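Sequence in, structure out. Go.
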Amino acid sequence: MNSKNKCKMIKLRGLGYSQKEIGDILGVSNGTIQYQLREIKKLSIKEGVDSVFFNLILPAIVSDMIRLWYFPPQQTLGVI
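Output:
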């Protein structure tokens, strides 16, 4: 699972989605979600939550920001 999907997984889990729902949204098995969440939890206990944020979550956020900066969504004009 790439860092962008891990970031989405953490966000969805924080919003209260079940592991099954997250798996369905990301197109992966429930076992994959369980494994990834377990590994992230181990990493956060071992290295600290800040380390997990800066090494896992922040890069995915920054890459989205850069993509949106260079390729902004198309604006549609509303009917007045």
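Check: The first helix runs from residue 3 to 14. DSSP finds four helices and no strands in the chain.
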